């Protein structure tokens, strides 16, 4: 005999599973039959029916039977479904907020998404590092450039772009950073390369592909220090970052193909399997509001808050 605790546990699991399924649906969608859901989840029909009834009683959905046509959704509250499905907090990992553009992005995402669900940010250098922890499930979402996201997808990574934040939402552009007395490229010059950042690695290899240089592995955050100390001669760098006059450094514009504008656009990625998360963010993220807040932070009209 099934005891009450086991029965309640099954009903709870069924409720969470169906809630996640419904997060992918909208008003007007036809739902699966109770028979199909029972077979899909290996649950008794009564357990499925109880879960559907609970969702309706809690105001998460309203269903409308239409005879032989099936049952359709007349009303749906995605926020309630998110909570019932067990997703009470969303964590997004993004680059370290060392520029106003990143601070603005963080402020925009934090304030916009928190209107709908508890949302927090984590910060980590290196797009490869962020991908690793996203895949492991430590984070729900990650911020990268569109160039990097496309590379991961082309490499067969099971991720999906959830939202694109638009041109120059990630960086204004990349440039070559060198000392002020830089006279041009010389054979064997040492070029800094951060292998954990796909953008920096790709742009570096692309720019120097026809030049006889030595690539030196460095951390992106240490590039300025390494050039000042003559450990390296040059490196690809985001022009959003301020160079202090006393550092005796300058930037040289990169002459790269138009496709590399993708390194300037921020995108949000998630695990492809995380359909409920993808649906929720796609539906409720107001990109225009995020960009408006980002612009206000950049122009010092509001204080960063994330």
From TrEMBL:
- Which residue ranges traverse the bilayer? none
Matching InterPro entries:
HTH_41, WH-like_DNA-bd_sf, WH_DNA-bd_sf, YhfZ_C
The Uncharacterised protein YhfZ C-terminal domain is annotated at 77-306
Full protein name: Helix-turn-helix domain-containing protein
Specify the YhfZ helix-turn-helix domain's residue ranges: 27-73
Q: Which domain of life is it from?
A: Bacteria
Q: Which Pfam families match?
A: HTH_41, YhfZ_C
